[in-house]
Amino acid sequence: MKRAARLSRGKTVRNRVASHRRTNLSPYRSAGGSTNLQSELAVCIWLPLFALRCEQQRRSEFTNDPTALLAVEDVRRLWQVSPTARRAGVKAGMTVSQAVGLCPALLLWEPDPVYYDVQFSNLLLELGNVSPVIEPGELGQLYVGVDGLQRLYGSPEDQIGMIQHTVTVWQRKLVAGSRESRANIARDGWKTRNRKWELRLSKGDKETEQAARFCVCTFARFGWGRGKFTAWVAATRANPGEAVIVSEKERVGFLASQPIAVLPLESDTHRRLWRLGIKTLSDLAQLPEAAVVSQFGRVGRRLWSLAAGAVVDPVVGRKTPEPIIAKVDFSHPVADRTMLSHSLDRLIEQALRHPQRAGWRILKAQVCARQENGTSWVSSATLNDPSADRRHIAAPLKIRLEHAQFVKAVETLAVEFTMFARGTDELQLFARDANSSARAGRQRALRTAVREIKARYRRSGLYQIVEVQPHSRLLERRYALIDYDP
Amino acid sequence: MIHNQLHPLNLPRRVQVQLNNEGLPLAVASDSVLLPGSTVEKQLSDVPKDDVKSVAAILEIWRVEDEWWRQPISRRYVEVVLQGGRHVVLYEDLATGDWFIQRCD
Predict the structure, then answer these.
(1) pLDDT tens digits along A296-307
(2) Which neighbouring-strand residues pair with A365?
(3) Nearest CB partner across the interface for A480, out of B9, B12, B89
(4) Has this prediction a pTM greater than 0.90?
(5) Does ipTM top 0.90?
(6) Which of B6, B89, B105 sits opposite A104 (nearest CB)?
(7) Long-range contact pairs involving A340-343 (C-beta distance under 8 Å, separation at least 24)
């Protein structure tokens, strides 16, 4: 097997960062946005357990405890499990009762998909500074197109270094956004890391160590290769925080040695291939394509092409939508602020429903008003976190509208979304789902309530009923109360 | 740091039970209202009638023998309906002879 070169952070990264700051230009941007948003050379960034890491970031006091996130669709099952819990035998997909039976100290958290979506959108936004060709995969997995970036950043190692730096910048913002006090600790940790290019923490500096342990980037894996599939396989072979680079010469050999589990297979297909004695991509590629197609149909053709390295799937970026405008002409000019505020809500809703907006979150919005005397007023707001939530977008605009000093009544009110950030398609679906949104909303309300109760009584005193051994013949072993700490 | 602890629900509560000749419960009284050291029959006659619930019906009887490999569990369960319509499970710990009450799921 020709093993691709592993890459750790190198000193050259810092030089490239400086160079990037000086030029702040990418080959795609220089073409004025008219370039083709596809790239065959790809970097895959894989952040395993993305949602759980985000949650640990928010609740850093529980970093060392065995933790698990409940599934979005079925809260009786686990979605993501921390390594500490995994060591106790807890696995993703288990029921809560099985998990608590194996690990009584397990902390269970309800998921907040909207929050994870926002953080992932922020990461995509940050990576937009490196390359305009960004394609999100599932949560915690994304591709950056790097065609032509060698002239700006240099070798693949340097490109990866630039991307690692960008992920680090996002991480710092995530820390700063989640907890200011913790952010200082984490930033110090990262400064240490950036200076020495490795994680060196002073002994006894437990807080810094803890902050560094829950850094998402520490767990990020990077893969560089031609085509998304090669980049993805390379990322899965990388150690945490490191990268595997697969050159074009090595590509076919590298893929040949991989197990078939790296293919996008359904479990049935995987089982069938396994029973046929096909265990590596090389085994699959050596079969005649027609034979694989006759057995597995269209899927088989795709699998064979991937295994043989015959297909290169490019990273496909999406053009940022043109500004979206929604406006209303009042039949009678309006001076009442409540009425204007209500109209603003409706306009934001209308703009959010625009088909161009699908898959994008709003980063910057502005509100414009034309008064009776022909003068106009405009104010814009940049959101800290890109959002597709009406209330989130409306809040800063309403404050500006309330403080606006209109001389005359308003004849026309307009809302314009001017900047966008890409969201994950998967989680945007989550967020659109009414139940998930409602649950996330309830979760936020409960979190606030618990915080207030804790501030007053030092403990929340709230409990959640969990199934422990629901079918036990001993009644007292069936259900239990567990501290409820959303 | 706050640690989550499991608090089992429906823990058995010790009670005094008046039995008939066949060893089946006739009446149940809270353990706290009984005088220590006295026999069950005497206690039940001593306590106020409101604290004693007679058994209106016996629904089911079964035995559980479990966990013989560590702390053996040997229980005789009786599912009953108490006077007033409350539905409970009583069990006798066959190792000690004590009776306990639990809610019925």
Answers:
(1) 888 888 889 999
(2) A381, A417
(3) B9
(4) no
(5) no
(6) B6
(7) A340/A369, A340/A401, A340/A410, A340/A413, A341/A398, A341/A401, A341/A402, A343/A413
